[in-house]
Amino acid sequence: MSAVIESHDDHHHGPAKGLTRWLFTTNHKDIGTLYLWFSFAMFLIGGAMALVIRAELFQPGMQIVEPEFYNQMLTLHGLIMVFGAVMPAFVGLANWLVPMMVGAPDMALPRMNNLSFWILPFAFLMMLSSLFMEGGAPNFGWTFYAPLSTTYAPPSVTFFIFSVHILGASSIMGAINVIVTIMNMRAPGMTLMKMPLFVWSWLITAYLLIAVMPVLAGAVTMMLMDIHFGTSFFNAAGGGDPVLFQHIFWFFGHPEVYIMILPAFGIVSHIISTFSRKELFGYSSMVWAMVSIAILSFVVWAHHMFTVGMPLAAELFFMWATMLIAVPTGVKVFNWVATMFRGSITYETPMLFAIAFVVLFTIGGFSGLMLAITPADFQYHDTYFVVAHFHYVLVPGAIFSIMAAVYYWLPKWCGNMYDERLGRLHFWLSFIGVNVTFFPQHFIGLAGMPRRIPDYALQFADWNMVSTVGAFLFGASQILFLFIVVRTVMGGKKATPEVWEGAQGLEWTVDSPPPYHTFSTPPEVK
Amino acid sequence: MNEGGKKTIKMLSLAVLGMFFFSFALVPLYDVFCEVTGLNGKIDLSPSRIVESDISEGRDITVQFVSHNNEQMPWDFGPSDEVINITTGKYYTATYYVKNTTSKAMVAQAIPSVAPSNAAAHLKKLECFCFEQQILKPGEEALLPVRLIFDNELPDNINNIVLSYTIFDVTEDNLDELASYMHEHGEDHHSMGS
Ligand code: HEM
Ligand SMILES: [Cu+2]
């Protein structure tokens, strides 16, 4: 009896048992796990939709789906990958890592944390259920330009609007939680400029979320009012303006793309430094680069709208402002390369993904620069070149960084090492798959193949076939990823607390797996 | 939660609210911005009171008129003259022909646009059918005037200006106006729009 009381006094309650553990949990590690699994499920669903798209594009002509259904797949694929896969994965990583990295016992607002996760599945259930509604799912592209998404939208658009409201609320609550945790719960001695870069990257990302998710909510609210309450925000006949929609959307949309890449910058900085066995080169310039990227991201939105008919002065302004962002981005790439320079590098799976990130993200940055040249963009806009650009920054960019993070921290989370040989196999299959899928899209884009069209002219046939083969390879290799992760969670070689030789940071000072509650008494940071 | 934490939460919640309202503030801001700068080919939609200036300071320019029917708008709609040669600083009147080709009374709204867009700031209209909605009975036709002037400050590199009108069917949104119009003009309700 006394033993039971004693262990209770220890303050280390284990988790509750069964399903209620996950439903009612306020533990940052549990919630992190939930976010990550949710994101993976969305990744597979969104991926299956992408394969429907690629299967249709395997050959010219219409073979598999109706054009209407193709549009729905395209729209849902984009929305699910952006809001369901990439963003929740980063929030999951923040939940697992931010408290452990700053030496806090949990997130600042644990109950809100539970809420912000559990409303997400409802948002996406609602969005996906529109597939079975009369008129079908949203079919206006992930950018939902009015009047396509208002006057011409299927009736299910109302459900789309509500699901965007919900997932926006989820992101905003998540961001508030991250900021309050970082600003108020750091261990004594951890000054801002001593914070790990992943924490910095998330702090900046959270501020971006606070600034632009409400604007997205505003945009869909205006749509709702135009559709149901007879207002004319975007309806020209009533004095509104469809171009205004594009301005509001991209005012949200461009910072949004940085929301999807800044945490990746943080992750990659950790991994490259660990496996090069060197301090990260230029820590403070990394921080300032991220801050300036975040600020600049508010003044470049119209590079998505060069062809709507803007005056010359605006075209020039947005061209130069966009190119300016390449400077801090270049600083970051330079620092990563400088960190690896003369390092004692080993090539474990996280490092392979991180190096591929640096190389392939940079390719995406370069195609971005080409798109930023206003006169050239008149040629490239709405072609597959744009598709190639943003998939390079998002797939081998954001998604590779998430995979790198999973391989890097998974042994910490579950206490077991993953199978290194399988991990490398997964990397190489993904690496080849991604490039075979998206590199040819540069060529067909420059040759003029329009995006978002289910059929194409004969001269694009060969590269489209190649691209589809690559897509199925990439898709299949993610099943291997699932297998590796599940097997690691179930068992395997035990991981040490440090996991990786010389890894820096508070998360490596606790056991692998960490106790359910870490840092109940804050650690001392020198 | 310590004091600092509470304060941070309060500030952040205010920022969220602020940004939500900011997104709505973008709507009027956008219009003001476009009007002040003449961007987007948007034209001041109120009658102006500009006086004609000395013609000898004016410059010869060409104005082309075009018309579009939005969506399924069935009316006949087009400029009486497709091109006019005019001088800046002097008023001209152009007309558009319009006919309701349907068997129902309808309400229409024309929306103007100017290309190149930096000419918009120099176009003033004393009178324009786009200032108000048009109601036409079945089969009714009309000549709609626009009285316009380009001021002498029109940039030198602009010699050719396109003035475009798109006509929208706004019957659905103006059933009340239509009903009272038909009432005043002694029509029964049978010929009203859907
Ligand atoms: C050096 C950095 C970058 C530059 C100069 C750049 C530039 C551009 C430009 C000019 C476009 C518009 C192309 C068009 O529609 O004609 C564009 C589209 C896009 N970019 Fe980037 N970009 C950069 C980085 C990124 C990053 C880091 C991401 C995301 C992680 C990203 C995601 C996107 C997306 C999603 C689109 C397409 C949106 C759509 O129309 O559906 N870009 N980029
Ligand atoms: Cu952008």
Describe this structure in words.
The complex is a heterodimer of chains A (526) and B (194). In chain A, helix 4 packs parallel to helix 6 (157-184), helix 9 packs parallel to helix 11 and helix 15 (420-446) runs antiparallel to helix 16. Chain A is built from 16 helices and no strands. Chain A has 526 residues and is mainly α. Chain A has helices at residues 2-9, 19-24, 28-57, 67-102, 110-129, 157-184, 197-228, 242-259, 262-276, 283-296, 312-340, 349-372, 374-380, 384-414, 420-446, 461-490. Chain A has a single domain, classed as Cytochrome C Oxidase, Chain A, CATH 1.20.210. Chain B is of the alpha+beta class and 194 residues long. Chain B has two domains: 3-37; 41-192, Ctag/Cox11 (Pfam 04442). Chain B has two helices and nine strands. A five-stranded mixed sheet of chain B has the order 3-1-9-5-7, with no helix packed on it. A four-stranded antiparallel sheet of chain B has the order 2-4-8-6, with no helix packed on it. The chains are: A mainly alpha (526), B alpha+beta (194). The interface between A and B is large, with 36 and 36 residues. The structure holds protoporphyrin IX containing FE (HEM) and copper (II) ion. Residues 254, 257, 303-304 of chain A line the site of copper (II) ion.
Which ligands, by name, code or SMILES, are bound? protoporphyrin IX containing FE, copper (II) ion
Broad structural category of chain A: mainly alpha
Count of strand segments of chain B: 9
Q: Figure out the total of helices of chain A.
A: 16
Largest sheet of chain A: none
Number of domains of chain A: 1
Biggest sheet overview of chain B: 5 strands, mixed
Order of helices and strands of chain B: HEEEEEEEEEH
